[in-house]
Amino acid sequence: MNSARLANLALAGLTQGSIYAIVACGFNVSYATTGVLNFAHGEFLMLGTMLGVFFYGSLGWPLLVPMVLTVAICALIGALVEIGAVRPALRLGHGASGWILSTLGVAIVLRSIVSLRMGQDLRAFPDILSRTPHVIGGVRIVPQQLLVIALAIAVAVGLHLLYERTLLGRALEAVSQDREAAAFRGLPIGKLSSTAFGVAAAVAALAGFMAAPLTGASPRVGFPFVLKAFVAAIIGGIPRIEGAFAGGLFLGLVEVYGAEYIGPSCRNVVVFASLLIFLFARPQGIFGRVSARTV
Amino acid sequence: MSVSVSSLEPSTTTDVLLRVEGVSAGYGHVSVVHEVSFAIAPKQLVTIVGANGAGKSTLLRTISGINRATTGRIRLEDVEIQRLSSARIATLGIAQVPENRRVFPKHSVLDNLRLGGYVGRKDKDGSAARLEDVVERFPVLRERTKQSAGTLSGGEQQMLAIGMALMADPKVLLLDEPSLGLAPLIVDQVFEHIRALSEQGRAILLVEQLAQKALALADVGYVLQLGRFVAQGPGAELAKDRALLRAYLG
Ligand SMILES: Nc1ncnc2c1ncn2[C@@H]1O[C@H](COP(=O)(O)OP(=O)(O)OP(=O)(O)O)[C@@H](O)[C@H]1O
Ligand SMILES: [Mg+2]
Questions:
Q1: What pLDDT is stored for residue A206 in this prediction?
Q2: CATH number where B12 lies
Q3: What is the residue range of A65's domain?
Q4: Domain boundary among B136, B152, B170
Q5: CA B62-B64-B70 angle, 5° bins
Q6: CB of B210 closer than 6 angstroms to any ligand 1 atom
Q7: pLDDT in tens, B52-73
Q8: For ligand 1, is residue B53 a contact (CB within 6 Å)?
Q9: A184: closest CA among B183, B103, B43?
């Protein structure tokens, strides 16, 4: 197998991994502040593709408008999910059982509504950047793929700056360090939690929208991505942003190379095998510290 | 406005900053604080002493809105606050230095202070001035603004926790056992800071097990036992009443 082929696979793997990375970053944002694993998280990626196909595909508005609109709507729904489904479940107590059921319920509801309104079919999404490869030295470079990879970098850097450089980010991080100590300082825990869910949803929706020319749009597109993004987050070390980024790219590469060298039917097997290897050898993930909470 | 040291209960509502009336609180079905009443006037330092488990922290947590009062009313100036969220109460002007300091260990000292000032974050000039005041008051913090709070000594963390509360520029400052786990020399330093704050006009509610020292600072003192006040009086007098303190604090 020649090096151009290897490079082509790397590009495909990084593209796939970039989507996992972005979704996993969002996962970590909501988890860090609330301690809740949002099982509806993948539905925001789905909504990104479906609202996108509606605003951008059907209505044909210029790119920026549907993109901003889709992301804003999803951010709002994300915040509402925290207020309506997560917060009451946490208030009732019962450990984790409450929010597992309520976020799963939200996932089913969102998927059903979209299916009823727009059908179950996988729809093509209009191009954002060209999907025609430029062949350079045998390597097929697809602008749309580069866009997705660049987006993952931008999201990871953006979230990193949010957490490190802004008071909002410091407050979100403080809540994840010690929720009650944050309440003692008058930090609005509820508002910060819904903000975290809004940011997480926005990020997932952006990934869905920008990657939709490659993935297609469908009400069922969310679940497989969120499952693998979850694996990526664990591999990277929850709830670290750099962990989600590295874990996502790693998983995309593993998946694509695994499919190539072991066989296409083993695609998912290698993904979950690598999860098992990590859980066994380094349960805290690539960037996690041993003292960090484990899921 | 000046308040005479011997006035136990501020008489009219106009010279009351914080009034706690018949407040009970607890955990689940267990009541821990039973119909406690007291008031703090502007610039007053009130100390509540009591043994382990007397309910001191529960009372402070209830005032800050972390716990809920099951009966009674709490008023800050003319606003009833017992049903408000802790965030709202902080915005209205109550800041608490929690038991065990509870700074954010992974955050830098500066970030901790900025978060202490979260409620007043929109007032940029005011925030900068308060930060300057805090690092002037606690020079050790100025030297360590970039250091993560978890690496500070216990005494430094206590100064930081007080600094965080001051960043909110509260009308009433609540201090929950600031002496906890500190060497005697450091305790004296912390109490010296509390005295200075009080002399500068800050209304303070101090809760302590170190009864004598804490009462000596106070205008008014109370002894809490099993969730009820069993003695009250001018701080200096209670501080001298060895028999009383021995009886309730061991
Ligand atoms: N989270 C909790 N759940 C149940 N009971 C609690 C809880 N916190 C405190 N208590 C109980 O409430 C009572 C009063 O506790 P509190 O912490 O208010 O006392 P304290 O006077 O602050 O004591 P200390 O001086 O040890 O800090 C104790 O009997 C304690 O066991
Ligand atoms: Mg206590």
A1: 96
A2: 3.40.50.300
A3: 21-222
A4: B170
A5: 25
A6: no
A7: 999 999 999 999 999 999 999 9
A8: yes
A9: B103
